[in-house]
Write a structure and sequence with these properties.
alpha/beta; 24% helix; 7 strands; globular
Amino acid sequence: MRITGGIARGIPLILPTRGEIRPATDYLREAVFSSLGELVAGASVLDCFAGTGAYSWEALSRGAASAILADKNPAASVAQKKNFAALKKSLEARGVSVPAVRFLSADLLGARPFPQDLPFADLIFCDPPWALWQKPEMESVVEKISAYAKKDSPNTRLILETPAGFEPDVPAGWRLLKRIGKKGKDQPAANVFVPETFAF
């Protein structure tokens, strides 16, 4: 598992030692970021159920300005910080300023919600354990997460990673722009949403 593009391309990523972690595949992340293209440069990122932080590190490697990573798993936090250290070293070696990164311990289905002062983001990634998509509470979780998006910008995207055969409910105020991924059992898919105002 590695960063697939940008300045830190090829940097290997460490996986958490404990917890239900199913990182986004290199193939899917590369396809998602190829789709996002120039929207990544200068973007602010919110990475929910962050796990290894792969979506964040991919974005920062490709020019995003900042990232906030949320996960309740302490082992995930340890892995995230090690991965950030590797990314930081790669960026500094090339004379690139290190973007701002914030780590949150948040249980979006429990008692630890996002803090009230969380800034709005251009790109929001939500990649929970797949079993959580079967929980009815996930609909309200996605609604809460989407509230942190910059809905007044045509460049804003909400990316929900799900099993390929699962179609998540469309959050209020959003439209499905595209679905990325391979078809088939146990294959991941990225559902890319755009604010309804800018849907086309």
